[in-house]
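This part of the workshop introduces the protein records we will be handling. A record pairs a protein's sequence with a compact description of its fold. Comparing a sequence with its tokens is the quickest way to learn the format. To make this concrete, we reproduce a full record directly below:
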Amino acid sequence: MMDTSASDSSVIDATMVDTTTPETSVLGADTHEPKYKQAVNSGNARALEFGLNNCIRCIEEARPDKQLGVLKNMASEVAEYVRQGLDEATALDRINAAALRCDIVHRFGLEAVHSVLHAAFSSSSALKRLSRASAPSLIRSTASTPASGSFSPPAAADRFRLIPFGQLLSSTSPEALIAGLIPRVGLTVVWGPYKCGKSFWLMDALLHVSLGWDYRGRKVFPGPVVYCAFEGAEGYKKRNDAFSQHYDLAIVPPFFLVAARMNFVADHGALIDAIRAQLGDQTPVCVVLDTLNRSLHGSENNDVDMAAYIQAADAVREAFGCAVIIVHHSGIDGSRPRGHTSLTAAADAQLAIRRDANDIVTVKVEWMKDGPEGAQITSQLKERQVGIDKNGAKITSCVVLPIEDVQKANAAGPRLTSDQRTMLTTLQAAGQEGLSLEAWNDRARDAGIGKTRAGKPRNSKLYDLRKALTDKGLIQETATGWKANQP
């Protein structure tokens, strides 16, 4: 009946009907098959219609990168229903409308969709009817198929299809890119003052998305991320190193940086084409525009300029069925995003970011159209050395850590190497009077550190250990020597 190898397992599960519902109570006896499948095989008209609805729902709920495979499988399933007695014209009309509604033709091209449906309905008179139809349709004869890469807008009847109440079925696919924070599809605004950690936090969160890791206990919708860094692009390379080293990353996440300057309103079409060309059969789950100011050739306060920018962002969202995140600065008083209010009005979610003097970064969900508001994520930026430059200077960046992890680490005390702990314990044993430098060095050597293999003193090693303990705030120099700080 149906080859499920190319389809998403969560989508296929949607066809397994709960047999306790009124829809399935009349559809056959208990066996290993869903009841409606048994009734379908016997030509039950109600079961055929139910099966068609399930197939349409699977198409609509498929992940963008799985859509063509799911369309192929569902078209084959519906073709079987037609052979069992389902009205073929109705079936093809429904599939046609679903493919248009889900932008499958825009995403994969008319030729690919045309080939899939012809393969499934090769003997169907309804397919021939649609191919001959005078009104524009998704399914056209080969002669009228646009050249590869082009797309002809569907007719108004297809674009503005009236969906009957009975077909308004709720989706079981994930609704969030990050649960409770960022919608899976739609426009999200992330805003805050300059240097508040917006980009640090967002990059960290989306690296979790690209890796398929839960983010702070929240489920993510995994997939490729395209991050357009319109300012400070060089800094993202160091952030990448800091993230990779902190998590000891052994795999390469599908996270892609665009480091080119852009007039987004004029260039969004080229950006869409570039993403498609370079990602191939991958579809991004998120595209980030960081920041609005550096990609808008116009005024943030002008309603026409901002409307054009929002329309361009919507075009990216529609092209990939993804989340589009706009990073923006705050206004003069810091109470709202800078510029015209049409941006906030168009957003599906808005997140405000603040950073205090202790580098504590707080992200708050100010509002969300289809979800709870007020959720907060608290993090701390921690400096991390990622290398040494050609002049011998340290190369540093920051990692974004959950505040809970920072507090636990602080409560447990600084991490020490074995030699650092030995050096500290030796000094602590002397009490508050401390030790002279010579006495401390002697006791450290007696404990087995600060000597070469030949047993000769190695003062540089002891100096490095003292400096490390000083930097961690564990010891201090006095007028007569050194002493350990009280916990």
